[in-house]
Amino acid sequence: MADGILGEAQPWQQVLALIVAATVVMGSPGPATISVTAIGAAFGLRPSLAYTSGVALGTIAVLLAVAAGILGMLTSLPVLAPVLATASAAYILYLAFRIATAPPLAERGSMATKPDFLGGFMLAIANPKAYVAIGAVFAGAASRADTLGVSTRLMVLAAMIVAIHVAWLLAGTAFARFLRHPLASRIINLAFAATLVLTTALAALR
Questions:
Q1: Residue ranges making up the domain that contains 179
Q2: Closest CA relative to residue 67, chosen from 121, 139, 16
């Protein structure tokens, strides 16, 4: 009965259901999204665009990998999962240190070192949570009696990945105006660094 109802859903309803699922599962706090927010807060909007672009494109690469069935290969080779987790955790700890020790915005010169596109891209493709979350959303959509097709699902989810990371970046940059005060800057940066480490630890324990 349920399959019949889902099968009768209009395409726009199926797209809306996919967007809601992506927002809940892929948009939840995790190592990549929290890192984008923290970088935005620590460095401001413009200096954070390259890193955020790297995370978004890396996550889209994960989406394509999942769609191509690479998730099945990863699960069939258990030794790869710890390697990805270790690489991701190491970079996240480095990133947390960079955020925690970032100087107030007013004290930064134009040559201040900022996380770059490559760092964001590598974090995204080494983030185990991305494979699990995207795999759950993609497989869930594919298992329903819908008429969207793989290409439509890929386009919708790719657009959601960009939108989700932009939203987290803007949330972080909302704090940037407070970061010109040395004490507020240190407190906020430490809080974001601790949150980044905590969300990574929680993701690893799931």
A1: 31-205
A2: 139
Q: By mean pLDDT, which of 43-52, 165-174, 177-186 is the weakest?
A: 177-186
Give the helix/strand (H/E) hosting 37. helix 31-43
* Neighbouring C-beta atoms of residue 118, cutoff 10 Å: 12
Q: What percent helix, strand, coil does the chain show, rounded to 5?
A: 80, 0, 20
CA distance 3 to 31: 35
Please list, in sequence order, all residues whose beta carbon lies within 8 angstroms of the beta carbon of residue 155, skipping any fewer than 6 positions away: none
CA 21, chain centre distance (Å): 15
Q: Residues 138, 141, 142, CA angle at the centre, nearest 5°? A: 85
Question: Two tokens at 148?
Answer: 């969207």
Q: Is residue 8 part of a domain?
A: no
Number of domains in the chain: 1
Q: What pLDDT, in 10s, does the model give residues 160-172?
A: 999 999 999 998 8
**pLDDT above 90 for 30:** no
The pTM is what?
Answer: 0.69
Contacts of 184 (CB under 8 A, 6+ apart): 178
Kindly report which listed range (56-60, 110-114, 189-193) carries the lowest average pLDDT score.
110-114
What is the Cβ-side half-sphere exposure of residue 105, based on CA atoms within 13 angstroms? 21
Helix (H) or strand (E) holding 159: helix 150-173
How confident is the model over 78-93, as pLDDT tens digits?
A: 666 566 666 666 766 7
- Rounded to 5°, the CA angle 145-148-153 comes to 110
